Amino acid sequence: MQPHLSHQPCWSLPSPSVREAASMYGTAVAIFLVILVAALQGSEPPESPFPYHIPLDPEGTLELSWNVSYDQEIIHFQLQVQGPRAGVLFGMSDRGEMENADLVMLWTDGDRTYFADAWSDQKGQIHLDTHQDYQLLQAQRVSNSLSLLFKRPFVTCDPKDYVIEDDTVHLVYGILEEPFQSLEAINTSGLHTGLQQVQLLKPEVSTPAMPADVQTMDIRAPDVLIPSTETTYWCYITELPLHFPRHHIIMYEAIVTEGNEALVHHMEVFQCTNESEAFPMFNGPCDSKMKPDRLNYCRHVLAAWALGAKAFYYPEEAGVPFGGSGSSRFLRLEVHYHNPRNIQGRRDSSGIRLHYTASLRPNEAGIMELGLVYTPLMAIPPQETTFVLTGYCTDRCTQMALPKSGIRIFASQLHTHLTGRKVITVLARDGQQREVVNRDNHYSPHFQEIRMLKNAVTVHQGDVLITSCTYNTENRTMATVGGFGILEEMCVNYVHYYPKTELELCKSAVDDGFLQKYFHIVNRFGNEEVCTCPQASVPQQFASVPWNSFNRDMLKALYNYAPISVHCNKTSAVRFPGNWNLQPLPKITSAVEEPDPRCPIRQTRGPAGPFVVITTEADTE
């Protein structure tokens, strides 16, 4: 007989008498059914282990593990819940909101514990889902914790369910501290809640073997006292040893200080430009007024890790060069601390471990910047919800700079600042969009990692690479211009490719002369509010624009049709020969079609739930 857990504040089990009475217990929505979890159809746990793990909350109460079956298009989740709790909420939403979220619920009424697929409305009220697409497979009690095993298809075609794609997923969670008599009695506003970003659908990439001469180098924060604010970007400058010879980085992985797994959100290692022989040492918040401006030139990405990511392996035929002549010795480590509970007194020495070899591989991997130039010429008006800016790597640049055999893009890191919401890079050939290089429809500026592509993309001479970013400035009162500052904006895709070429930056911006014509038109139909005199800077001009619908639409039209200035730059920051100003926008006659989601074939619908949970005791011997 299963152990009976009634009269406890957490997971309780029904006795046989409760089972007989369960049919009498119900709500207006559904009949509560008592089931044995192991008897569910298709309830066998997955054979493979759970390769991905993340802590959901800073206190370590909830830990999520998962694995992915691309053949079945199903994710198996394992949720570990520590301590006695009255219930837990887990799910997904568009931006991490608790409203309009796709949820799975576990809660108790004080006697029995229930599991259900649910959703929240725009007021945070929780409702039972008519389609129970989250399927509980196992509930197991271990000491003072509970382990839940459940699964869900990528796509359910249930309008209340989130479509799981290979972009960023905003996971939401909540902890119930007291019993609730029914699901409909729960509102997310009264719960202890939070969010966590992750990429659930990791690409299936084989792990290359490491050579015998592989060495490691740790780039770590030096015993940082984590600030008790929600968001901190910490910058630390270090340097390679003198006369460090040329090597290839072939793998890197995160080193996270034990106990800080939920606070260290993402980390990046940048190499500084080799145009300066030395860079000032710095160890402090990246937005500090004490940070030297020269550190803005430490932007060449060597490694990037985000929560939930495993070790990053380069293809066997390529490695990233660092060290030796022509390479800067100075590196910048940037750590994003996410501390929503304002925890104090926590020290951290997290960082990234580089695995490198002196046995240089056949191809050197390069990193190329695509998108928009860091310039105030590109701006987003205030109070916009979906304003799109686009940067071009033109056919003329790829024709001149790429080898005849082309290059292979195998990984990508998308990047904007705080108002970025979507990013996509598309490859076009002969005037037609052919394939998506990388796309994130749920992009978060607080979750950035280098992602391996499921399929490498080959770029030939004469191809066009188009990078578009969608921004939301509805909480801003002034125009947001492009630039390096965190309150300014960027639109970048750092693509990782081989073989390395001289082309390091292939981006664009609207022609300055046409932007000035825009300001003249604003004055013609306004009250001469924008200064078009030589002493006025572009940010000052944008700050003076009255943002009525006419001026907004005119700016969109300018960016969609005006000529561009193309930056087709070598690693020395010098453009390839030729006139790159007043270039026409590439003519694209067809776009890549969005794939239609494949709805699963629903089996005969079972009971609408919720289900009373019967747990099993784990064998701890």
From TrEMBL:
Residue ranges of domain DOMON in the record: 60-176
Topology class, membrane: Single-pass type II membrane protein
Top-level EC class as recorded in UniProt: oxidoreductase
Main location: cytoplasm
Location within or outside the cell: Cytoplasmic vesicle, Secretory vesicle, Chromaffin granule lumen; Cytoplasmic vesicle, Secretory vesicle, Chromaffin granule membrane
PANTHER family: DOPAMINE BETA HYDROXYLASE RELATED (PTHR10157), DOPAMINE BETA-HYDROXYLASE (PTHR10157:SF29)
Protein's UniProt name: Dopamine beta-hydroxylase
